[in-house]
């Protein structure tokens, strides 16, 4: 294994950069040299089908915008667990060949257990051989304490800039970036610098980026934290040159096998007496109709789910609108065009909803009306809990889209009655703006779905999108944290 000698002669070497296609051809060439009895697939299949028996692999944690597991080609899976060097591609292929293709079981059907075993083997080789060799070759005296600092403080393989700089020392982040183990986001693409180029250049510091990601060869460091779904960044597959999606808007797959009670508020009109609401049928049947029955098979149901997810988009636009107005007022900054644009976006998302309509059936018409109520309920709770709206202002926003802030809240009793009858929102104070205790009381009566969704949306959106809008500088960001009371 080359160590110090490799470092001593590195300035006399020509560095070769291999494209993804060139690396793929190396793998394919090695598959072509295998004997027929060592291949899983039949003649005529793609080289990857012949070697593995499958050519796509489902990720265990990263999901698309509908909450479905993301898939990637099996070669992409292998490639991102390397540093894009031919010997590493060959090494993984050799380890997989030795373990899975030289036995009599190679001709048996592919099973989920086999796929998981291959996944584990790639992770093992990436950690124990590829990363170890990389550190030996390029990084004399590797600072593993910097890796541990990241892992124990971030508890994830991705972090927004604010969280990273607050919890990890700048020496550690600069070092991990230089040695190619901490990547940044360029546009919507993840980039890791080649450690062989910058490992000894201390002037190479962490670039400005909204997000940073940890190299997949370090995934083993995170596995001690428990279930991969608890620490893996759920919006994107992590790896050099992979696309990166920020959680600008949380979109939820509402068919997760939860019981209907997961979606129902904790406090709701009781004893099957709905006369005090504008819903004249059992809400249990309505919730069941939207969230449980026929989710993926029924186009109407899919539209209803997308409509409910639009409530998060609507809240995101209102949050940007409130931020723009706050910065314009505090700093005398010209934000007129942005404010006008955001108001138009909010109007388009709000639609022409009549929350006063009574719901008397569980047919398609009734379910559509109830979907609008679910939309309105999510919006109102977001406005009250996170965006500093009073009860009256929240009512005005969902009924006529008025973002006007009122010096005197006025008509709180009428607004409270409307929110309770239309959306089952209880625990509202009699007057004025909501205190922290008021907000806690409202959230306690929310559904489990809302308690999971809304706080996560606000934290992700505020930290990762709103604050890093290009319209704002560091002074604006500090003020917005104070304005929104974000701790």
From TrEMBL:
It comes from the Bacteria. This is Uncharacterized protein. It comes from Neolewinella agarilytica.
């Amino acid at each position: 294994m080359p160590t110090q000698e490799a470092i001593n002669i590195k300035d006399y070497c020509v560095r070769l950069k291999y494209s993804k296609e060139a690396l793929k051809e190396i793998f394919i060439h090695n598959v072509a040299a295998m004997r027929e009895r060592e291949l899983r697939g039949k003649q005529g299949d793609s080289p990857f089908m012949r070697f593995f028996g499958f050519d796509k692999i489902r990720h265990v944690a990263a999901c698309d915008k509908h909450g479905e597991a993301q898939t990637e080609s099996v070669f992409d899976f292998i490639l991102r667990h390397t540093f894009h060097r031919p010997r590493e591609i060959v090494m993984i292929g050799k380890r997989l060949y030795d373990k899975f293709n030289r036995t009599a079981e190679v001709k048996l059907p592919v099973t989920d257990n086999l796929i998981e075993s291959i996944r584990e083997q790639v992770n093992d080789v990436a950690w124990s051989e590829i990363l170890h060799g990389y550190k030996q070759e390029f990084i004399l005296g590797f600072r593993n304490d910097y890796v541990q600092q990241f892992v124990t403080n971030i508890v994830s393989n991705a972090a927004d800039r604010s969280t990273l700089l607050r919890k990890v020392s700048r020496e550690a982040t600069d070092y991990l970036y230089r040695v190619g183990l901490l990547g940044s986001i360029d546009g919507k693409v993840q980039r890791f610098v080649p450690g062989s180029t910058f490992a000894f250049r201390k002037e190479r510091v962490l670039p400005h980026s909204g997000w940073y990601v940890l190299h997949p060869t370090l995934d083993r460091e995170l596995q001690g934290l428990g279930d991969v779904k608890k620490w893996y960044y759920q919006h994107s597959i992590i790896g050099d040159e992979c696309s990166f999606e920020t959680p600008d808007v949380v979109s939820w797959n509402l068919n997760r096998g939860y019981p209907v009670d997961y979606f129902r508020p904790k406090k709701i009109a009781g004893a099957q007496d709905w006369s005090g609401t504008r819903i004249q049928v059992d809400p249990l049947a309505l919730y069941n109709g939207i969230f449980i029955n026929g989710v993926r098979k029924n186009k109407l149901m899919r539209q209803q789910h997308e409509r409910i997810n639009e409530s998060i988009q609507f809240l995101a636009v209102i949050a940007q609108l409130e931020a723009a107005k706050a910065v314009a007022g505090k700093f005398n900054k010209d934000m007129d065009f942005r404010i006008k644009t955001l108001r138009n976006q909010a109007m388009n998302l709000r639609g022409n909803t009549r929350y006063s309509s009574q719901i008397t059936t569980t047919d398609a018409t009734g379910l559509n009306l109830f979907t609008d109520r679910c939309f309105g309920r999510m919006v109102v709770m977001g406005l009250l809990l996170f965006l500093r709206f009073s009860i009256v202002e929240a009512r005005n926003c969902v009924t006529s889209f008025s973002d006007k802030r009122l010096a005197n809240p006025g008509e709180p009793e009428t607004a409270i009655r409307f929110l309770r009858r239309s959306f089952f929102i209880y625990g509202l104070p009699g007057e004025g703006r909501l205190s922290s205790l008021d907000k806690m009381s409202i959230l306690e009566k929310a559904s489990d779905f809302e308690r999971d969704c809304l706080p996560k949306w606000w934290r992700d959106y505020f930290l990762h999108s709103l604050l890093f809008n290009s319209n704002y500088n560091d002074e604006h960001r500090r003020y917005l944290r104070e304005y929104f009371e974000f701790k």
